[in-house]
């Protein structure tokens, strides 16, 4: 077509065959040279930027909406905690019930719309909503529903003097829990590509609704712990601290009289499970929110498998630690508060137990990091919202216990009088900081690795030498530490096509024959012995992960069920003041408790990947 009749004029001519040499292969036409204003120039890029702008705007708008809801809910919680005038528990429960009902409406709409389009192929995030994580959420949700039933029974017993919201809230929460668990099982892996703006608001509303329910549970449990703590301080001899119990018993009689005290006492043993349920659900929903509109790569996800073979040592040590933890917690709760001597003995017992366990965990974490240093393997840096959230939560929640530990260290160093048990508190507080630092390094590096895969050189090159029709495969240690791929493999022109992932060598002249004979005389099992390669390395790492998993479960149990020496030793209250230190502990302790459960979940994932 002549120029000027629809054919675009090319500003530059393609080079000739003699000019392009090796830079323009003959089997492939040269790429077109585009003028700045021609089709296919930077216009699609600008269009992509314009297309992504509404998504970023919707993300910013939805996050700001959720933060405002969260701040309003926190103010309701604060007003109820400090007995603000005009704001009571009824107002707080009405606000939380309205948030749950709004989330229920959105989840029902989403589930119905997904069922109507169930035949469509939807993208999924293979890393989000692992089956073991959904199973954990289900287990905690069952306990949460039992807790709701106890609250409804408590409301029935005191129905004469309690507001109706005290009965409506647990019933709504039970329905909310059932539907949310169903939603997470069916849709936690979804990558939403339609109605993205509406879905962003719905998902982020669900995230912060669960966070407010988590904060409400923490406040209820903390009030109960604080009352017990004030009573114990008298037995430890801290009479200069003002004891004012925060009693919330309704001003009427319960029918039957023995039912309500039993329910009230039993509810607080279920709060730790309810707290873990709310925070796990919010993290899964947050990953769903981050995946909205996301473009996933075609990288195939390797399914994790749970195997118990070869982890006898790690499991035995971990179960021993778990059994010791249960014994220590039982003795601690029995002895603390009985007398000053028994309380000090209980504190010393707990500190000795925790010091030994934290030292063993630190050594195990250092061993795992050392193995990774010896194993030169590239990390997986692909975009993964679930993995990034895991790493951020590990570091963020660890700061809670670090805050308490540094407060204890400062109180010990600055106090004028030091009871004997405080000298056990000092190494305990230091080890809490060091152990979590080491464990975070081990977990973060583990979740960025693929330990179950073969190394890169073995994956890309399996050399088989042929001697009179008999094939002998080179051991992996030779490829790792011996000759490189360039030293072993022949030139590309001499190699046959790859079959079944294995590259075959063949005799092509005297030179190759000599090389074959030289390899024939090499030892078969290994060329150079290495430290913990292959299955041995994976077995050691699995034992470390199993041991740390059970130890984190063990360290989750004491603070979750009332064994909190940060409350009971009394030294920090003298140095910092009673109310400031109690505020610090009440704010930081929930993060410290969640850290142990989240670290255990991450270590379980690490164990399954190895």
What oligomeric assembly is this protein in?
single chain
The value of Rg in angstroms is: 31 Å
Largest β-sheet summary: 3 strands, mixed
User: What is the tally of beta strands?
Assistant: 3
Estimated share of beta-strand residues? under 5%
Helix fraction, binned, reads 55-70%
Give the SSE order as H and E letters.
Answer: HHHHHHHHHHHHHEEHHEHHHHH
Number of helices, where a helix is a run of at least 4 consecutive DSSP H or I residues: 20
Extract low-pLDDT stretches.
Answer: 1-44, 451-531
Q: What structural class should be given to the helix and strand makeup?
A: mainly alpha
Q: How far apart lie the N and C ends?
A: 63 Å
Shape: globular
What spatial order of strands do you see in the largest sheet? 2-1-3
Return the average pLDDT rounded to an integer.
Answer: 76
Provide a brief overview of the structure.
The chain is mainly α. The chain contains 20 helices and three strands.
Describe this protein's structure.
- The protein has 610 residues and is mostly helical.
- The chain has helices at residues 17-20, 43-81, 89-116, 131-157, 165-187, 196-235, 259-267, 271-290, 312-335, 340-374, 385-414, 422-447, 456-460, 476-481, 485-488, 510-520, 535-560, 565-568, 571-576, 578-609; strands at 463-467, 470-473, 503-504.
- α4 packs antiparallel against α7, α6 (196-235) runs antiparallel to α8 and α10 runs parallel beside α12 (422-447).
């Amino acid at each position: 077509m002549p120029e000027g009749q629809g054919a675009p004029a090319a500003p530059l001519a393609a080079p000739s065959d003699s000019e392009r040499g090796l830079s323009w292969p003959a089997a492939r036409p040269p790429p077109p040279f585009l003028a700045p204003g021609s089709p296919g120039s930077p216009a699609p890029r600008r269009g992509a930027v314009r297309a992504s702008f509404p998504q970023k705007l919707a993300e910013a708008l939805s996050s700001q909406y959720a933060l405002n809801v969260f701040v309003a809910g926190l103010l309701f919680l604060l007003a109820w905690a400090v007995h603000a005038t005009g704001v009571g528990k009824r107002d707080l429960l009405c606000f939380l019930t309205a948030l749950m009902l709004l989330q229920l409406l959105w989840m029902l709409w989403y589930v119905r719309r997904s069922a109507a389009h169930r035949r469509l192929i939807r993208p999924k995030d293979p890393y989000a909503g692992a089956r073991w994580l959904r199973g954990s959420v289900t287990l905690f949700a069952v306990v949460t529903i039992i807790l709701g039933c106890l609250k409804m029974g408590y409301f029935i017993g005191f129905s004469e003097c309690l507001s109706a919201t005290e009965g409506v809230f647990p019933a709504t929460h039970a329905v909310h829990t059932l539907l949310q668990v169903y939603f997470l099982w069916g849709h936690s892996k979804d990558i939403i590509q339609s109605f993205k703006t509406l879905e962003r608001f719905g998902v982020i509303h669900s995230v912060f609704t669960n966070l407010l329910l988590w904060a409400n549970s923490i406040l209820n449990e903390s009030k109960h712990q604080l009352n017990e703590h004030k009573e114990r301080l008298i037995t430890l001899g801290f009479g200069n601290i003002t004891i004012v119990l925060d009693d919330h018993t309704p001003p009427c009689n319960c029918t039957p009289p023995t039912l309500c005290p039993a329910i009230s006492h039993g509810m607080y043993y279920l709060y730790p499970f309810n707290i873990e349920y709310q925070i796990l659900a919010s993290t899964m929903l947050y990953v769903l929110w981050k995946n909205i509109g996301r473009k996933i790569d075609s990288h195939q996800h390797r399914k994790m498998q749970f195997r118990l073979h070869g982890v006898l040592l790690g499991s035995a040590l971990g179960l021993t630690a778990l059994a010791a933890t249960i014994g220590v917690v039982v003795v601690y709760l029995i002895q603390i508060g009985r007398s000053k001597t028994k309380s000090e003995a209980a504190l010393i017992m707990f500190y000795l137990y925790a010091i030994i366990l934290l030292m063993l965990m630190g050594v195990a974490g250092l061993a795992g990091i050392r193995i990774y240093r010896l194993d030169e393997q590239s990390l997986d840096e692909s975009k993964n919202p679930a993995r990034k959230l895991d790493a951020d939560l590990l570091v963020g929640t660890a700061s809670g216990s670090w805050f308490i530990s540094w407060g204890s260290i400062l109180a010990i160093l600055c106090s004028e009088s030091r009871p004997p048990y405080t000298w056990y508190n000092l190494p305990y507080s230091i080890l809490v900081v060091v152990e979590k630092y080491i464990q975070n390094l081990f977990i973060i590096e583990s979740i960025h690795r693929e330990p179950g895969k073969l190394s890169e050189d073995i994956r890309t090159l399996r050399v088989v030498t042929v001697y009179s029709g008999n094939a002998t495969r080179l051991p992996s240690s030779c490829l790792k530490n011996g000759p490189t791929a360039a030293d072993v493999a022949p030139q590309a022109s001499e190699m046959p096509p790859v079959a079944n992932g294995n590259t075959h060598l063949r005799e092509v002249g005297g030179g190759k024959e000599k090389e074959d004979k030289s390899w024939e005389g090499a030892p078969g099992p290994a060329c150079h012995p290495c430290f913990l390669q292959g299955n041995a390395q994976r077995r050691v790492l699995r034992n470390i992960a199993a041991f740390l998993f059970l130890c984190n479960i063990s360290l989750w149990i004491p603070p979750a069920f009332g064994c909190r020496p940060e409350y009971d030793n009394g030294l920090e209250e003298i140095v910092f003041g009673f109310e400031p230190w109690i505020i610090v502990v009440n704010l930081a302790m929930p993060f410290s408790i969640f850290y142990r459960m989240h670290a255990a979940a991450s270590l379980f994932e690490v164990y399954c990947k190895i």
